[in-house]
Design goal:
heterodimer, A: alpha/beta, Rossmann fold, eight-stranded mixed beta sheet, four-stranded antiparallel beta sheet, about 20% strand, B: alpha/beta, 12 helices, 12 strands, about 35% helix, about 25% strand
Chain lengths: ~325, ~325
């Protein structure tokens, strides 16, 4: 049913310890952490495409991997279909993984170069023992190749990844993911390595199977123009925090957080008659090891006042479904 | 005034499987002050064209035909020593793809810029460093940072330092190869603003190579679309977007999403770019073209001027359709 939460994340944290030299270890200085994800909460509704957007290093990929427990969370809860999956043991998690899948960014690295397309796509079936006979496996593999429009399937099953183009590889990666009929997929920048002319084709097969199998997606991207056309709702991240969460329409047309506003203004538009993209903020994203106090964006923010450096703003709902974490946005 | 003229340029790479025809008959003319966006997908030959102009082709690449005229001098046949001393970096400079890796990590950025100056001009190092400081402030970096090492600069600053280095000898002509591709959107906007400003201030003639039509729309005055080793269309920037005539240009524009439009279904171009070892006969776009006719598979369309400084190569223009 639409509107129901497929995934609910509460105060998710993922900290990576910083490797130290032997001297500081001996002097037992305090361990430092890269706070890649630092207290993130959101809900993904059943059947929607939820965008996670932000600049590199904002924690969007770490969030995506952590909600699947491909990275163990440092803290927080992850509810998938109502169950807290952080409490599951390995065997239970394996069962769960059938329903929760990921598509990686780079199809040149995510496919084993020594395996044929058939082996790559059938591996999940074997791992989860979903087929009773080799004939059935073959049938399922062919069907999924057809689903991603690698037709005729027999032309592709015995090829190796190096014999495929980038777009075809990413289609194989999609086929491998949807063959388990998951209900939830994290797509981590699935088109950013591909040429413009073939990107839409990959998105089309992803979204077609979404309709056919009722899949919920988290779509991780740095490209807001694509997010605009694919996602229903989305969250903008900055230094491990969500700064704004709303429908894609609201994020684009009515952004409230100064960072979201700056992002939207910086996106170039493929139309010379429209205004130019502008950089309304200077500088670059600081390191997440020692993020600024209070609001992490305050050193670059034109609206910043005293309170911004002292107190961290909460993500609060300012109107129906539009959340923003800023002391000055409401 | 014409700064650069490329006449029927052919650049091939020799491989064990045969010649890869990366640039196969490109005709191009750039006027002073023009800012040309050279757009195409990966492997279409846009970087090869730029490297051929700079004479920086890798060992297995060679120019097999055509001319490259810089201020009416054919630089293809020039002696390497003369080209190195008087042309490369002095009259034409290159902003390399991936500024992150283009700077030498063990030298201070100021010294690297000063080196480019002292090699080409008879000036003392101190003077060259002064120029480096000026260049830094020109591209919006604190001049004091010339004593920094590359790893002490952020990605956006490194990219600006590369642009400063390209400007070091006041070249007539600059090629920028994907100058913003590795940058985040806000830093990209900052860098494009620097480029736009420099164009206004210095009137540089520039070729900006990119796969991103939106970057071209925001930065360039003209646009050339390249496909499989050929230019398929050239026009001023407004015409490119409002009245493109080549089916590939049209398809590329409609495949490109804009944040300013309402949510829509994105359109892809069927098929994949061809392998340049064995490109399709006739028009190289014909296997992917929605308007394909018989002639398209047989004859290569001519690259014709169809309007004022508007060129295109498509049989639809000469054979109706």
């Amino acid at each position: 049913m639409k509107g129901e939460a497929e995934l609910k994340v509460v105060n998710l944290r993922k900290w990576f310890p910083v490797r130290r030299g032997i001297v500081s270890t001996l002097l037992s200085r305090k361990t430092e952490y890269v706070k890649a994800v630092d207290g993130v909460s959101f809900e993904v509704r059943k059947g929607e495409v939820f965008g996670l957007a932000g600049e590199s290093g904002c924690g969007k990929t770490t969030t995506g991997k952590t909600v699947l427990r491909l990275l163990e969370p440092t803290g927080g809860e992850i509810y998938f279909e109502g169950r807290d999956i952080t409490a599951l043991n390995k065997a239970e998690m394996k069962q769960m993984r059938r329903k929760m899948q990921i598509i990686y960014q780079d199809p040149y690295q995510s496919l084993n170069p020594r395996m044929t397309v058939f082996d790559i796509i059938s591996e999940p079936i074997n791992v989860h023992r979903l087929s009773d006979s080799p004939a059935e496996t073959e049938e399922i593999v062919h069907k999924s190749l057809e689903d991603v429009e690698l037709i005729p399937a027999e032309d592709f099953v015995f090829r190796f990844p190096h014999e495929l183009s980038g777009g075809q590889r990413q289609r194989v990666a999609v086929a491998r993911t949807i063959i388990l009929q998951p209900s939830f997929i994290v797509a981590d920048e699935p088109i950013s390595m591909l040429d413009v002319s073939i990107r839409a084709g990959i998105l089309k097969v992803m979204l077609q199977t979404k309709e056919a199998q009722d899949i919920t997606y988290i779509f991780i991207t740095h490209d807001l123009a694509y997010a605009r056309h694919i996602c229903h709702r989305g969250a903008i991240m900055y230094l491990g925090k969500i700064v704004e969460l709303a429908s894609m329409d609201n994020l684009v047309n009515n952004p409230l957080h100064p960072y979201t506003i700056a992002l939207m203004m910086a996106v170039p538009v493929p139309d010379p008659t429209l205004g130019k993209a502008r950089a309304v903020i200077s500088g670059e994203v600081p390191t997440p090891i020692n993020p600024p106090s209070g609001c992490r964006f305050h050193p670059r923010c034109s609206k910043a006042t005293d309170i911004c450096s002292r107190q961290e703003p909460e993500l609060v709902e300012v109107s129906g479904g539009h959340f923003v974490a800023c002391h000055h946005a409401h | 005034m014409t700064i650069l003229e490329v006449q029927d340029l052919k650049t091939y790479y020799s491989t064990l499987k045969g010649d890869v025809k990366a640039v196969d008959g490109v005709r191009l003319q750039m006027e002073k002050g023009e800012s040309l966006g050279l757009v195409g997908e990966s492997g279409c030959g846009k970087t090869t064209l730029a490297l051929a102009i700079m004479r920086l082709l890798p060992w297995n690449g060679r120019i097999v035909g055509g001319k490259i005229l810089l201020n009416d001098v054919d630089i293809v046949g020039l002696d390497e020593a003369i080209f190195d001393k008087d042309y490369r970096w002095k009259r034409m400079a290159y902003v390399f793809q991936g500024a992150m890796n283009a700077l030498n990590p063990v030298f201070k950025v100021g010294d690297q810029i000063a080196e480019a100056i002292t090699i080409h001009e008879d000036v003392a190092k101190r003077e060259a460093l002064d120029r480096a400081r000026e260049l830094f402030s020109l591209v919006g970096i604190d001049p004091g940072r010339i004593t920094s090492y590359p790893h002490e600069l952020s990605g956006g600053m490194k990219q600006r330092a590369m642009i400063a280095m390209a400007l070091a000898c006041n070249p007539d002509f600059i090629i920028a190869d994907e100058p913003t591709t590795a940058l985040d959107v806000i830093v990209q906007a900052q860098t494009l603003e620097v480029i736009n400003e420099l164009q206004k201030k210095l009137g540089i003639t520039m070729m900006l190579i990119t796969h991103d039509l939106s970057v071209v729309a925001q930065t360039c005055t003209t646009c050339a679309i390249m496909y499989a080793g050929n230019l398929v269309e050239y026009a001023d920037i407004d015409t490119t977007f409002s009245d493109p005539v080549h089916p590939y240009t049209q398809a590329l524009i409609s495949a490109f999403p804009s944040i300013k439009e309402d949510r829509r279904e994105l359109i892809s171009i069927s098929g994949v770019p061809p392998n340049l070892l064995n490109p399709p006969t006739g028009c190289r776009f014909n296997p992917r073209c929605p308007h394909r006719m018989d002639i398209c598979t047989k004859e290569k369309p001519e690259y014709l001027e169809i309007g004022d400084r508007h060129f295109a190569a498509c049989h639809l223009l000469t054979n109706g359709g």
